[in-house]
Design brief:
The structure holds two protein chains of two kinds.
Chain A (H helix, E strand, L loop, with lengths): L3 E4 L2 E5 L4 E7 L4 E9 L6 E6 L5 E4 L2 E5 L3 E6 L8 E9 L6 E3 L3 E6 L1
Parallel strand pairs in A: 2-11
Antiparallel strand pairs in A: 1-3, 3-8, 4-5, 4-9, 6-7, 7-8, 9-10, 9-11
Chain B lengths: L3 E4 L2 E4 L5 E7 L5 E8 L3 E10 L2 E4 L6 E3 L9 E3 L8 E8 L8 E2 L3 E5 L1
Parallel strand pairs in B: 2-11
Antiparallel strand pairs in B: 1-3, 3-8, 4-5, 4-9, 5-6, 7-8, 9-10, 9-11
Classes of the chains: A mainly beta, B mainly beta.
Chain lengths: 111, 113
């Protein structure tokens, strides 16, 4: 069964303490991997799309990378406003429009 | 642009009642989808539409109906609510087949007692 696993489930950082979130997938025929940010009580907000191993995307303090079996979301010198749940999702060549989402990593950045 | 809007924000239903969750987008997006989000389960696709008049089932379609008569609107109907349908429902849209930059609405929190 195709699976998307995110780790850790929750992460607490001090402001300025860099770290990484992981998204691993046991799927074949990956068409794309997507990262979203979700704030409490709101819908997910699109961050990045990655299509092939070795690809990297950056946005402010966030950088997403992709290997053949996992993706990392690196957070450099985080600020309290980076606190949110980060979701990853995969789309397969055989799944048409369907995305399979992971359960997310809840990030808290303390001032 | 308002983006993707959903109504209501909160709803409490009794088992067996029916209702419609509304979703509208003003970005002229072809694709629209409905997801439910449950603790420990992640977001799961209920139904989706690739354009007006075209809908298809997602991962968890049972108990829900959809229709797409216009590009802008994509309502989700609960036919006979059950406690298992207690969840947060999100509508999403995206502009074309090759783009997965989805825009999500703010969600509807539904409780079925």
């Amino acid at each position: 069964e195709d699976q998307v696993t995110q780790s850790p489930e929750a992460l607490r950082l001090q402001e300025g303490e860099s770290s990484s979130l992981n998204c691993s997938y046991t799927v074949s025929g990956l068409r794309g991997l997507f990262w979203y940010r979700q704030d409490p009580g709101k819908g997910p907000e699109f961050l990045f799309t990655l299509y092939s191993a070795g690809e990297e995307k950056e946005k402010e303090r966030l950088k997403a990378t992709l290997t053949k079996k996992e993706s990392f979301l690196h957070i450099t010198a985080p600020k309290p406003e980076d606190s949110a749940t980060y979701l990853c999702a995969v789309q397969l060549e055989t799944s048409g429009s369907r995305l399979t989402f992971g359960e997310g990593t809840q990030l808290t950045v303390n001032p | 642009n308002a983006g993707v809007t959903q109504t209501p924000k909160f709803q409490v239903l009794k088992t067996g009642q029916s209702m419609t969750l509304q979703c509208a987008q003003d970005m002229n997006h072809e694709y629209m989808s409905w997801y439910r989000q449950d603790p420990g389960m992640g977001l799961r696709l209920i139904h989706y539409s690739v354009g007006a008049g075209i809908t298809d089932q997602g991962e968890v379609p049972n108990g829900y109906n959809v229709s797409r008569s216009t590009t802008e609107d994509f309502p989700l109907r609960l036919l006979s609510a059950a406690p298992s349908q207690t969840s947060v429902y999100f509508c999403a849209s995206r502009p074309r087949r090759s783009s997965y930059e989805q825009y999500f609405g703010p969600g509807t929190r539904l409780t079925v007692t």
